[in-house]
Amino acid sequence: MRSRTRTALLAVMGLTGGLLLTTPQPASAANLVKNPGFETAGGDDMPYCWKKSGWGDNDFAFETVADAHSGSKAMKVTLTRRTEGDRKALITESAECAPVVTVGKQYDLGLWYKSTTPDTSITLFRHDTTAGWQYWTDLKTLQTAAGWTEATVRTPEVPAGTDRIAWGVSVYGTGSVTTDDYTMDQVAEPVPDPVCTGTAEECANGRWDVLPTQNPVRSMHSVVLNNGKVLLIAGSGNSEEMFEAGTFTSAVYDPENGTYKQIPTPKDMFCAGHVQLKDGRVLVMSGNKGYPSADGTIGYQGFKDSYIFDPVTETYSRTNDMNDGHWYPSATILGNGDVISFGGLKEDSTGSVTAELWSDAEQKWLELWKVNQTWSYWGLYPSMILMQDGRLFYSGSHVFGNNIPGTGAAIYDYDANTVTQVPGLQRKDERDQSASVLLPPAQDQKVLTLGGGNIDSNPDANRLTDVIDLKQPNPSYVAGPPLPQGTVDLGAGKIAQTGDQGKMYVSAVLLPDGKVLETGGALHNRADPVYESSLYDPATGTFDPVAADPEARGYHSSAFLLPDGRVMATGDNPGNGSWNHDVSIYTPPYLLKGERPAITSVIDTEWSYGDTQRITVDRPIAKAELIRPAAVTHSSDPNQRFVDLPLSVDGNNVDLNVTSNPDLAPPGWYMLFAVDAGGVPSVAKWVHLDGPRALSAKDASAHVHAFADDLQGKVTGPGKKRSAQQVGPAVSGCDRHYGSANVCVPTDFPPAVKATTKARCDWLKANDYGRLKVNGRDDPLRLDPNGDGVACGKADVKAKR
After folding, report:
1. CB 628 within 8 A of CB 670
2. pLDDT tens across 240-275, in order?
3. For residue 516, what are the contacts with CB-CB under 8 A and spacing of at least 6?
4. What contacts 611, CB < 8 A, 6 or more positions away?
């Protein structure tokens, strides 16, 4: 990982060359850019409506030159030395000069250029009516060109609150770029929405279908492979009986024909970590070495083993071991293809404080002394999201009980080996099994957290959401809109949620239309399923309730995007130890709007950073994006991301401008979607992003810009070296004095359950726990007053306790 770019300083400096014309050159009716050819002089030795901009340590020159594409003037920007930063000629950020734009519309930008450096791109800024001028995005990377070359690109839809934009060409490498004849036109109005192909209810809210064939394994890990199939990993499936028998399972599901193929699985990968490597193979780390002891004195144990699953051969092969055991570890791929992992439980049931680094170059886990260590305990399945400057954002979403000390969210800098707390996360100790997602597009660097609870204290799960803009100099969470409420089954049928009731075990899925589906969940620790789904729109910051999955989707459930644009949901493992093998498929409303656009050809499926890649489509599209396929478990997929691909459109030929920043889109296989003006996506094509590192946070900071640099939170460096974090054996929120290891009697019952034997036994009966053996002589929950070794018998319930 690379150290972050330091604070950007906007510099406006003198220009040596003057301009001759003085009559203002207005924008034409078809071109929204004023003085597009630099023919009219302005102040500060710059053309009218243009200004010098840039930052950092570099030597530069701005010149107006006679070597023009048309007319008599062009603008030349030269960097002769660069340590960091960029220079750009930018449309002046003023009401007089910056083009007016309309929210939700797109604009075609064009210019002519010559360039002696590949380190240059079209950069946009936007004026927010509340927050003022701010960086928006980088669009097209310009290739070197000795002669005049035309560059065109289509903007994303203009975000809410934006009334003007300014743009120009950034130069962030030594060399020169000469530009002329800028154009900007609003994209024509889309055709009317097609006629709905479903019922009115389906077209508004989508449709769930339960598949006729069940998932044959108790899978809590779901990975969408680069051939469109789905790897479903169960291991022992949270079944102590299967663990003792050595029965470890996985399956590969084929959405094309609805079939499952069971895969020999060498180890108990129950609650392992997993991530897709850049070549499409799946790295699976750690898993379950042992279940808790019957008396509750020993907790779960994580082994050190690590495996790679090959989608081609559909087999597992072993790698070298990790340095520690990690039951419930994080797994985040970095911009260079390495993988970093934190947290989880060691082989002795204590918490691992070891940071692990998988080397893409060496294809192995690095030795401990080669990996920077803060000796921090990040908990279980901590959500660690790669930022576009190479640092990691710990969002505050985690599993089991309380959050880490401090504010519950932080920015982790591997190079500096520091952790900086980030404020604003609401009720940070009730975000157990919440979901966190990097919102579309990844270029915006906004993260959303949803819901959560606490399996130790077991309150009603909450409706909280929080949003953070990681581009801000000192980012802080702000409260988002509350999750919509649905119905909850408390054991006597579904009733409407009330008050502040929300859900934990939330699934959040990025959709190709740029929205987020949140679905599934439960009100309490492995109990009381909540039936509610909604679509979150990052552009408006609002939720739209849609059809709910008819199946319970609580603990050990997952939901994920398929290449055809539908969403698949699997699993549910309530406290009584049972498993839901039914599979649900959600058809979003965008698939009920008539015919879909189609990508009829992809010229090249091997993409490099900074590329322009051409595709053909069968009809006009409004946007295209790369979506990284899911690798999800326990509400957690920190690698999920939606990367916008700015367009250059020529009829049915569309050139896609690929980001130059591997920290924004880590190397690997992606689903490429084309989306029309009505939000209807194509079926995805698979493309592989890799190649030379076109830029990094150190070497091409024009694409990183100033954000999250002057953090004001508490900063900590490496702590004292230690071997582990002490963790209680009841970390999973289950009282092991009762039943078997895969049965979870809550250590703390839901608030509505009185602390009496009868009330607790009635709740257990309503949730289908059946007969429960008492392990040992202790009865902390008073479920066996008569002491016969069986909890909640008839005599127990009649006892006055």
Report:
1. yes
2. 999 999 999 999 999 999 999 999 999 999 999 999
3. 437, 439, 440, 448, 508, 509, 510, 535, 536, 538
4. 141, 658, 691
3-state secondary structure labels for all residues of 313-364: CCEEEECCCCCCCCECCCCEECCCCCEEECCCECCCCCECCCCEEEECCCCE
Q: Are 180 and 111 in contact (CB under 8 A)?
A: yes
Tell how strand 282-285 and strand 273-276 pair up: antiparallel
Q: Identify the segments of the chain with pLDDT beneath 70.
A: 1-30, 190-193, 692-709, 799-801
- Tell me which residue has tokens 């499936």: 237
**Per-residue confidence (pLDDT) for residue 244, from 0 to 100:** 95
**Cβ neighbours, 10 Å, residue 30:** 9
| CA atoms within 13 Å, Cβ hemisphere of 717 | 2
Among residues 8, 168, 169, 175, the alpha carbon closest in space to that of 85 is found at 8
CB 450 within 8 A of CB 483: yes
Amino acid found at 289: K
User: 293-349: per-residue pLDDT in tens?
Assistant: 877 789 999 999 999 999 999 999 999 999 999 999 999 999 999 999 999 999 999
Return the SS3 of 718.
coil
Q: Tell me the backbone φ, ψ of residue 377, rounded to 5 degrees.
A: -100, 115
pLDDT of amino acid 191: 64
Distance CA 123, CA 136 (A): 8
| Predicted model pTM | 0.91
Residue type, 723: S
The CA-atom distances, in angstroms, between 386 and each of 76, 339, 364, 445, 506 are 36, 11, 21, 10, 21
What distances in angstroms separate CA 555 from CA 119, 399, 505, 521, 618, one per listed residue? 48, 11, 6, 8, 42
- Distance CA(207)–CA(256), nearest Å, equals 19
Q: Peptide bond before 382: cis, by omega within 30 degrees of 0?
A: no
User: Which one-letter DSSP state was computed for residue 520?
Assistant: -
Residue 316, phi then psi, degrees to nearest 5? -100, 145
Structural tokens at position 608: 């490099």
CA–CA separation, 556 and 240 (whole Å): 16
Q: What is the pLDDT of residue 5?
A: 34
Which residue, among 622, 621, 629, 616, has the nearest Cα to 689 in the 3D structure?
Answer: 629
Where b means 16+ CB within 10 Å and e means fewer, 782-801 reads: ebbbeeeebbbbeebbeeee
Helix (H, G, I), strand (E, B) or coil at 239: coil
The distance from CA 144 to its chain's CA centroid, rounded to whole angstroms, is 33
Q: Nearest CA to 701 among 28, 15, 57?
A: 57
Measured distance CA(112)–CA(456) in Å, rounded: 62
Q: How many CB atoms lie within 10 A of CB 775?
A: 19
Distance between CA 332 and CA 544 in Å, rounded?
30
User: CB neighbours of 573 closer than 8 A, spacing ≥ 6?
Assistant: 218, 220, 238, 526, 554, 555, 556, 557, 579, 580
Q: What pLDDT does 473 receive? A: 82
| Contacts with 186 (C-beta within 8 Å, 6 or more apart), sequence order | 32, 101, 102, 105, 106, 107, 108
The answer to whether residues 55 and 9 touch, using CB atoms and an 8 Å cutoff, is: yes
Q: What is the pLDDT of residue 472?
A: 87
Rounded to 5°, the CA angle 671-672-678 comes to: 120
- Kindly report the number of other CB atoms within 10 A of residue 610's CB atom: 24
- Is the Cα dihedral 352, 355, 361, 367 positive or negative? negative
Q: What is the pLDDT of residue 708?
A: 66
A 10 A CB-CB count for 755 gives 10
- Rounded CA separation 665/334 (Å): 9
Quick check: 129 and 185 in contact, CB under 8 A?
no
Q: Are strands 487-489 and 527-531 parallel, antiparallel or unpaired?
A: antiparallel
